[in-house]
């Protein structure tokens, strides 16, 4: 006769069958029934089974719960058993919350980042700093709160078990992911950051400073990255204002010297304003003949000497151009320096920033493009590679791709800088899935990417607003493809069945998260919504819900480990076998089809992304190795291969890699990237570098880049490829480490110490591959 049970803390308490009955009744009720008599009958069967084991007169709680599950299944109550299991898991989570969280906090507090993968989860946060650690305290506490109290139990279980990964779980209840900021709209008439109003900028230096402030302010309203999709178009307005001001100043000086005219600046400004008001023309980098003629006509009324006026005008134009060019370079240099030193999120990290440029063919736009590239090429104060912003050069035939295109020289300069500094990356506007949105003369339809790869353009919710500006991703969740493949034991039909179940789960979870986001109000996002950054948010009041305007954003499903998934299903990945490639395209195509169906069903933008997996690559494989063991080509490394990429450790020609990965770009409408690894210093062979970019464009790549080793000795300043010894000063790596710049998920990281273990392993495999090619 059982009279006592053993609690989890070791205490022995009286046995009470009513507690078993109540637990079963709660599970029955969860299935939609109200049958207490059934619960009592099932509880009696549990007690009977307990008595069948006479050697254990004081069972523990876990044993009793195991028997409850067994009885429910044996008696044909599968749904009740499932509800009971979820209830049991939930209770376990609640019990363990404090102890688990405290163990995490202990590791964050007393272990250095190099010994704690959690501190290195985000490579652009210094986990050893006070603010970096504090950010992780908040992050880990928020994750557990969301997992235990916000998520549906089935969603939480899938995330915890590694079937899916809900990205940025710590921000689940707080905000959205990212946005593309239209700086032209933002700067017009000025804006506020919450501590006073900033006037509309009037020169290129102010434009540069306010661009930094805009990115920093918006970063504090979102958890993801901030992109300026029209950097050249936006900054060009600042260049134009700067030139006009400098032209007037230099013209006044010249007139004063050549004609003894007093108070010439007042005269020049008065004439310029009159011409602008009456004829809407202004001084410009390429002198406007109408303006020059009208100005000369007005000046002749005061200085009746045409030769003096023409000489003064020529001097002013030449001098103002040179000064504007110099000011623009300094403004771009300041922008880059600021983006690598200013902080957001309680000072824990620099903003995740991206700028897109390359297609503005105006003289002012070209001056911006040239100088942002030259400033990037020069590097930071000691020649370091700027980590942020991510630079994306937009490639377009008729604008910059061919030798007779107006911005072809800018494209060539971009190649040179990228070969030295790893930036810019390249976006290809002529890719079929990008060009279909393009409208000449409408920069808001030019495809722009976030640095990590995110792409937002199609708009099922409002097809008339298929534009870049003011839109972004709301949230995304990644599916563990190798896990489904391993469970399917090579059965492709079973794989697709299980994949569909997981897609259903993710769609449901994304909608749940959207409901949380949609109930937020404008006041919860004082900059993003309050300053009209997000599309149509300027039509809302401070207390209004943001539900409808959020529908312009995207809800995104991602995937990881296609290569390992194919290896588990067919024995070969898509880099090894054409049949595997076809299956890979079928898998990703099926996922895209499901997203399109969800978009139609819910009239929202469900999209598919080739997941930028930084910390996730290691998390999934570690869980799967515990379950399935070490399987060659699948779970035997420290990471799963990113998205649809051919594995970095697989020897393959760069052009073959491009051709294999290119078809996946059209399928992944929420974002993608293809990068290839090259050995040596590509700045010594720009023709080869350019050929790779041209092959990417020809293959239909949407977004691509070229990786190459860039190391720097902080002692002597040498930048290049460094082994164990600096080739310039001969110093061996000791306490002062060489800086080794590497790209992860589209952006750069300035030191390998910031990588988590999985990304370190991937970088090592890249290096081995490069060494093998040498």
Q: What features would you describe in this structure?
A:
The protein is of the alpha/beta class. The chain has 24 helices and 19 strands. It has a seven-stranded mixed sheet. The chain has a four-stranded mixed sheet with strand order 3-11-12-13. Strands 17-16-18-19 form a four-stranded antiparallel sheet, with no helix packed on it. Strand 18 (739-744) and strand 19 form a beta hairpin. Helix 9 (231-259) packs antiparallel against helix 12. The longest helix has 34 residues, at 306-339. It is elongated and about 120 Å long. The protein starts with a strand and ends with a helix.
Name a few traits of the molecule.
774 residues; alpha/beta; seven-stranded mixed β-sheet; four-stranded mixed β-sheet; 24 helices; disordered C terminus
Number of helical stretches of at least 4 residues: 24
Q: What amount of the residues lies in strands?
A: 5-15%
Q: Assign an overall shape.
A: elongated
Biggest β-sheet strands, sense, barrel: 7 strands, mixed
By DSSP, the count of extended strands is 19
SSE class = alpha/beta
Low-confidence stretches: 770-774
Rounded mean pLDDT score: 90
N→C terminal distance: 76 Å
Share of helix among residues? 40-55%
User: Which strand order spans the largest sheet, edge to edge or round the barrel?
Assistant: 4-7-8-9-10-15-14
Query: What is the gyration radius calculated from CA atoms?
Result: 31 Å
């Amino acid at each position: 006769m059982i009279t006592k049970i053993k609690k989890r803390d070791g205490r022995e308490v009286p046995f009470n069958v009513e507690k078993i009955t109540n637990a079963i009744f709660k599970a029955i009720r969860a299935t939609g029934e109200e049958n207490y008599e059934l619960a009592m009958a099932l509880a009696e069967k549990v007690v009977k089974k307990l008595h069948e084991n006479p050697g254990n007169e004081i069972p523990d709680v876990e044993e009793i719960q195991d028997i409850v599950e067994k009885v429910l299944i044996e008696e044909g109550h599968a749904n009740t058993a499932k509800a009971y299991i979820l209830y049991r898991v939930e209770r376990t989570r609640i019990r363990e919350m404090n102890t688990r969280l405290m163990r995490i906090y202990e590791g964050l507090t007393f272990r250095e980042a190099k010994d704690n993968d959690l501190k290195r989860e985000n490579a652009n946060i210094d986990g050893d700093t006070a603010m970096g650690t504090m950010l992780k305290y908040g992050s880990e506490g928020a994750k557990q709160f969301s997992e235990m109290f916000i998520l549906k139990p089935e969603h939480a279980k899938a995330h915890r078990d590694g079937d899916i990964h809900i990205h940025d779980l710590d921000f689940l209840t707080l905000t959205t992911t990212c946005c593309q900021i239209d700086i032209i709209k933002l700067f017009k008439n000025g804006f506020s950051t919450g501590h006073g109003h900033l006037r509309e900028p009037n020169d290129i230096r102010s434009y540069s400073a306010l661009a930094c402030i805009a990115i920093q302010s918006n970063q504090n309203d979102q958890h993801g990255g901030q992109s300026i999709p029209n950097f050249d178009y936006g900054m060009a307005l600042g260049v134009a204002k700067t030139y006009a001001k400098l032209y007037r100043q230099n013209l006044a000086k010249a007139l004063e010297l050549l004609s003894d005219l007093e108070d010439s600046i007042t005269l020049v400004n008065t004439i310029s304003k009159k011409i602008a008001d009456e004829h809407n023309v202004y001084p410009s980098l390429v002198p406007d003949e109408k303006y020059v003629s009208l100005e000369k006509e007005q000046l002749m009324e005061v200085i009746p000497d045409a030769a003096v006026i023409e000489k003064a005008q020529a001097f002013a134009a030449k001098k103002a151009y040179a000064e504007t060019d110099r000011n623009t370079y300094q403004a771009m240099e300041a922008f880059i320096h600021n983006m690598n030193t200013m902080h957001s999120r309680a000072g824990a990290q620099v903003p995740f920033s991206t700028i897109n440029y390359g297609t503005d063919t105006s003289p002012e736009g070209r001056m911006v493009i040239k100088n942002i590239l030259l400033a990037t090429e020069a590097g930071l104060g000691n020649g370091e590679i700027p980590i942020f912003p991510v630079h994306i050069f937009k490639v377009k035939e008729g604008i910059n791709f061919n030798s007779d295109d107006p911005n072809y020289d800018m494209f060539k300069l971009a190649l040179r800088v990228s070969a030295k500094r790893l930036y810019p990356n390249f976006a290809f506007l002529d890719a079929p899935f990008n060009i279909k949105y393009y409208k000449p003369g409408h920069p808001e339809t030019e495809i722009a990417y976030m640095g990590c790869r995110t792409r937002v353009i199609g708009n099922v919710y409002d097809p008339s607003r298929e534009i870049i500006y003011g839109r972004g991703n709301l949230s995304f969740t990644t599916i563990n493809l190798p896990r489904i493949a391993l469970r399917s034991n090579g059965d492709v039909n079973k794989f697709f069945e299980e994949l569909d179940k997981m897609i259903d789960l993710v769609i449901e979870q994304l909608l749940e998260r959207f409901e949380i986001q949609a109930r937020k109000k404008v006041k919860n996002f004082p900059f993003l919504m309050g300053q009209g950054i997000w599309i149509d948010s300027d039509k809302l009041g401070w207390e209004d819900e943001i539900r409808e305007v959020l529908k312009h954003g995207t809800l995104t499903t991602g995937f990881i480990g296609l290569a390992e998934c194919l290896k588990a299903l067919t024995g070969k990945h898509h880099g090894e076998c054409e049949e595997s490639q076809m299956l890979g395209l079928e898998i990703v195509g099926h996922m895209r089809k499901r997203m399109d169906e969800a978009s139609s069903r819910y009239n929202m933008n469900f999209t598919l992304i080739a997941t930028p997996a930084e910390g996730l690559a290691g998390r999934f494989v570690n869980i799967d190795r515990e379950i399935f063991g070490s399987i060659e080509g699948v779970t035997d490394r420290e990471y799963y291969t990113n998205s649809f990429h051919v594995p970095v450790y697989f020897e393959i020609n760069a052009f073959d890699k491009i051709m294999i990965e290119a078809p996946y770009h059209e399928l992944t409408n929420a974002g993608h990237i293809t990068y290839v690894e090259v050995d040596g210093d590509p700045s010594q062979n720009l023709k080869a570098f350019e050929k790779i970019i041209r092959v990417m464009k020809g293959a239909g790549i949407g977004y691509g880049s070229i990786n190459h080793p860039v190391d720097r000795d902080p002692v002597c300043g040498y930048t290049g490829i460094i082994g164990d010894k600096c080739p310039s000063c001969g110093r061996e790596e000791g306490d002062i480490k060489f800086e080794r710049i590497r790209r992860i998920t589209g952006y750069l990281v300035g030191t390998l110490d910031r990588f988590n273990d999985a990304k370190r392993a991937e970088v090592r495999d890249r290096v081995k591959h490069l060494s093998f090619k040498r």
